[in-house]
Automatic annotation (TrEMBL):
Phylogenetic placement of the source organism: Bacteria, Bacillati, Actinomycetota, Actinomycetes, Kitasatosporales
Top-rank taxon, per record: Bacteria
Protein's name according to its UniProt entry: Uncharacterized protein
Length: 124
């Protein structure tokens, strides 16, 4: 059997089996449902609690703690501000303190953060 130019003994009559069909793209992750959020910051520290979890910043250090990693989040009003503690499922505990400029700010933060935490922690 003679082969023409460019044929190397492949299957007769074409280019072989067709390529496999394209696989459909995996579905996109579900969107983060917006919910209530709490934000507090002072000159050096800050914290955010929202639908994604808790974010703490202390000076140059920061950590994002998604709700799937958190067992619970506690807060305590202090005379000078607010202390927030996040407890993870695997053991580590993270804390962040934010100073308030006015004593009345502590009461406002406490009420707002309490409502936000209740929203995200209910049913746990």
């Amino acid at each position: 059997m003679t082969h023409g130019y460019g044929q190397q003994g492949g299957p007769a009559g074409g280019f072989g089996a067709p390529p496999p069909a394209f696989q459909p793209a995996p579905p996109p992750p579900p969107p983060v449902v917006p919910g209530p959020e709490f934000v507090a910051a002072d000159e050096y520290n800050g914290l955010v609690v929202d639908s994604e979890g808790a974010h703490f910043e202390q000076g140059p250090h920061a950590i994002d703690l998604p709700w799937s990693r958190l067992r619970t989040v506690h807060f305590q009003p202090l005379p000078s501000g607010l202390s927030v503690t996040a407890v993870t499922h695997d053991g580590p505990v993270f804390a962040c303190q934010v100073r308030a400029r006015r004593r009345s700010q502590v009461a406002t933060w406490s009420a707002e953060l309490g409502a936000v935490l209740q929203h995200y922690l209910q049913g746990r």
